[in-house]
Amino acid sequence: MLQVLDLFGVFVFAISGAAVAARKQLDLFGALVLATVTALGGGTLRDVLLDRHPLGWFGDATPLLAVLAAVLLSVLWCRWRPLPRHALAVADAIGLGVFCVVGTRIALEAGQSGVIAVILGVMSGACGGLIRDVLCAEVPMVLRQDVYATAAAAGCTLLLAMDRLAVAPGIGLLAGGGLIVVLRLGAIFCDWHLPRFVLRGEDD
Fold first, then answer.
1. Which residues does residue 146 pair with via DSSP β-bridges, in sequence order?
2. Which residues form the Glycine transporter domain (predicted)?
3. C-beta separation of 48 from 120 below 8 A
4. Is 59 exposed, middle or buried (0-12, 13-18, 19+ CB in 10 A)?
5. What is the rounded CA–CA span in Å between residue 25 and residue 117?
6. Backbone dihedral region of 193: left (phi > 0), alpha (psi from -120 to 50 degrees) or beta?
7. I want to staple 37 with a disulfide (CB 3.0 to 4.6 A). Which of 28, 41, 50, 147 is the partner?
């Protein structure tokens, strides 16, 4: 299940990277770069920190093929139809949910403590998008007032709690990932957000 979910997360996150490339009017190479760093960046960082060798996409080309398929599908879609308004945000929400719980589960199976597992889960889901946003000269979504890292941490914590209660791993993955997706979609469509940190000027 972890492998299937991880591959699904790669595909969805690659679509979100390609959507950003389309919005920025980048060429095909630019779309491939953004899709690759978005889909593989967080998981690669997690595996490096866990000292997992070989890295997932080094020993198996399937994730790279999933990225390529996602980019080609996105390019074909954009040629025939306009990009849906919330396509990037929805794809990113689904990818975040999948990668966070997969990352947390992998860290737990590697023998890490609960706190470290949650941190690595959040990193797995958020760091790829962070790299994508930095490359596009945007303030990373994870640092804005949107419910993003908060949603990721909530879902990873729920998975951890269910693991400690000896709930079946599959149920924990679905519950944690589902919570993340619901919170992110709520932020997108219902304007849920955290308070902004604002410095008042002398003239206020």
1. 193
2. 4-76, 90-163
3. no
4. exposed
5. 37
6. beta
7. 41
Mean pLDDT throughout 34-44? 93
pLDDT digits (tens, 9 = 90+) for 131-171: 999 999 888 878 776 688 899 999 999 999 999 999 998 99
> Residue type for 145, please?
Q
- pTM here is 0.85
Q: Is the dihedral of CA 68, 73, 173, 187 positive or negative?
A: positive
- What is the DSSP secondary-structure string of 22-42? HHTT--HHHHHHHHHHHHHHH
How many domains would you assign to the chain? Answer: 1
The answer to whether residue 115 sits within a structural domain is yes
Which residues span the domain enclosing 92? 2-189
Examine residue 200 and state whether it is found in any structural domain, yes or no: no
CA dist 125 and 150 (Å) reads 12
Rg for the chain (alpha carbons), in Å?
17
pLDDT confidence band for 202 (50 / 70 / 90): very low
The token duo for 22 is 């389309």
Give domain status of residue 97, yes or no: yes
